Amino acid sequence: MATSNRVLLGLFGHPISHSAAPAMMEAAGAAVGLDVRYHLIEVAGADEGVIRRILDGVRLIGFAGINVTFPYKQAVIPFLDALDPGAAQVGAVNLVTVRDGRLTGHNTDSTGFLAGLLGTVGEAAKSGPAVLIGAGGAGRAIAWALARAGVPEVRVVDQDPARAASLAAEASGWGSGRFVPDDSVPAAMRGALGVVNASPAGMLPDTSSPVDAALLEAGMWVADAVYHPPVTPLLAAAGAKGCAVMPGRAMSVGQAEDGFRLFTGRTAPPGVIGAAFDAHVR
């Protein structure tokens, strides 16, 4: 929690030059009278030694905390002093707070996605099977949210079948629904009523979609964790088919609102973080 007017925050990941996090956090700080300085810590291919040194720097320099994004949401865990219960269950961290020199990992991707899903898809999420594409850090957080939302069956697909199987086995204990690994997106999509992209597919400069448009049907709901661009190829195809869509904005804004409270102990006024996101991501 911030104890002075100036708050030093950051984001660790790669690639992150497009990130809306600085705009969102600095706008939230200004709205409650805090001087938030948000820095991008962009490092490609960081090994364990580099990750340890970066986190030691965060601990020593005076950061109130940092966000963590692809590809380090799981890699940072061994170098933290503690995990909150939600992050421990998810097995991934997107936010680290610094208190008295101790680093604690949290996961606001999970709560942010859940809030977005309930606000856009609502009860329809409980109506039938959903496909989750991507079983990395973001995929694990979204799996937690899907379990909490009451999705009855989630079919997990990943480029690494072992990772999909591991997540499915763990997540089956997170709620009343079941999680099953699947070999391919086309196979998983048979009879599905929802689909979530938790992979980097469609994030600029990539323009691919993780789902062939022919597999989408009116009446389905489609969510994408990618927010750059605001309308990804997947969401564009889903919208054209008459699907209900949840853009990456919902998850990004939701996790930032939760994150700001963890970093500062303050709540951003309604709409401030969303407006900062919209001004940054066009």
From TrEMBL:
Keywords: Amino-acid biosynthesis, Aromatic amino acid biosynthesis, NADP, Oxidoreductase. Pathway: Metabolic intermediate biosynthesis; chorismate biosynthesis; chorismate from D-erythrose 4-phosphate and phosphoenolpyruvate: step 4/7. One of its GO terms (cellular component) is cytosol. Involved in the biosynthesis of the chorismate, which leads to the biosynthesis of aromatic amino acids. Catalyzes the reversible NADPH linked reduction of 3-dehydroshikimate (DHSA) to yield shikimate (SA). Residues 11-96 form the Shikimate dehydrogenase substrate binding N-terminal domain. It catalyses: shikimate + NADP(+) = 3-dehydroshikimate + NADPH + H(+). It comes from the Bacteria. The gene is aroE. Its EC number is 1.1.1.25. Shikimate binds at residues 69, 94, 109, 227, 255. Homodimer. This is Shikimate dehydrogenase (NADP(+)).
